[in-house]
Design a protein that fits this description.
The chain has about 100 residues and is mainly α. The chain contains six helices and no strands. The model has no long low-confidence stretch (mean pLDDT about 90).
Length: about 100
């Protein structure tokens, strides 16, 4: 659902100059959550999203470059990583 909201906010902003107050009223989420959803949708395009991974996993890799996002998302699936384990793997790779 958070990806959908982020995509909707991106579309609304580029087409209607969407007001966050309206989005808050419609979704029940606060401004911070909506901004995070939009950020996530901006940094993880549809084709890179993994439906079998929690949105928290995607948040962990969103700031990274595409190849590293792919690597970590695939590893999270293959190794059945938790969010904490994914975070540790992300930090390990950053220091290599």
């Amino acid at each position: 659902m958070h990806f959908w909201i982020g995509d909707w906010l991106r579309y609304g902003e580029s087409h209607f100059k969407h007001d966050y107050q309206e989005a808050i009223a419609l979704t029940g989420y606060n401004y911070h959550t909506l901004r995070r959803d939009k950020y996530l949708a901006e940094h993880i395009p549809f084709e890179r999203r993994r439906s079998n991974l929690d949105v928290a996993m995607h948040h962990e890799v969103a700031p990274l470059e595409e190849p590293l996002q792919e690597l970590l998302l695939d590893k999270a699936i293959a190794d059945k990583l938790t969010v904490q384990q994914l975070r540790m793997e992300k930090h390990r790779l950053a220091h290599e």
